[in-house]
Amino acid sequence: MATPSQPERKKIIVEHENATGKMSFLEHLTELRKRIIYSLIAVGLGLCVGLYFSDRAFGYLAHPMLKALRDAKLEDRLIYTSPLGPLQLFITVGLYVGIVLASPYVLWQIWLFVAPGLYRHERRAVLTFIFSSLALFLSGMAFAYWVMLPMTLSFLISFPGPYRAMISMNDYFDMTLVILLGLGIVFQLPILIFFLSLFGIVTPRFLWSNFRYAILIISILAAVITPTTDALTMTIFMAPMVVLYLMGIGVSALVARHKRRSEAIARAGAR
């Protein structure tokens, strides 16, 4: 990312002061309230749509579980153990679907509130961060749904013992949500390394020289988080984390190069 020249920096400061100086503290509060109200309305509308598609959404989430039951030659049916179970699940799934549908508009409202107080180059950086973080989060959820969830369920269903599988749909939804959100968060590792590199806490050389310790930590983390005990599932869980760590080293190298370039420009300007 190119560093702005001295005239450009002065122009940016003037634009920033003009943008933020036009609003008083009370006007900022009024603007914040407006953005919160718009966001809540969007979530409410999303909830209405989510409730309409709640059954289909849960059917999509339940597909890996039903497939695992069929593969194990068991009845592909989920049960509920409380009279309120179906209603509770219906509302919960609808709420999550509504939040997902409303999230782009909510992020847009947050951006409209924050953007006037940022420099132009900071706006580009924040947008890049938002899109990168969202893409990594969705990639983590996709990996969880298409890879981790089927393997985990197949292992758990085939667990030996004098048992008969009677899977509660509420318990299954809770477990699925933990796996999807957990891997979505784990896939934020390059973003975490970016900020650590930005504040000088880690460097590319440090990350690379401690690669074997990172593998050890990833192995321990995989052993703790993975709900199964077989080595294959743990290895599959570890593989994307190792790739994400290597991506983080690349991100850290880009940050370090940008810092060196900025320092060189600053030294040249001081002369």
Q: What is the gist of this entry?
A:
This protein has 271 residues and is mainly α.
Helix count equals 10
Q: Indicate the mean pLDDT.
A: 83
Percentage beta strand:
under 5%
User: Which geometry do the CA atoms define?
Assistant: flat
Distance between the termini: 23 Å
Task: Report the count of strand segments.
Answer: 0
Give, in order, the helices and strands: HHHHHHHHHH
Radius of gyration: 24 Å
Provide the structure class. mainly alpha
Q: What level of helicity do the residues show? A: over 70%
Low-confidence spans: pLDDT under 50, at least 5 residues? 12-21
Largest sheet: none
Describe the structure.
By secondary structure, the chain is mainly α. Helix 2 packs antiparallel against helix 4, helix 3 crosses helix 6 and helix 5 crosses helix 6. The two termini are 23 Å apart. It has a domain of 149 residues. The relative contact order is 0.10. It is built from 10 helices and no strands. The radius of gyration is 24 Å and the shape is flat. About 4% of the residues have low confidence.
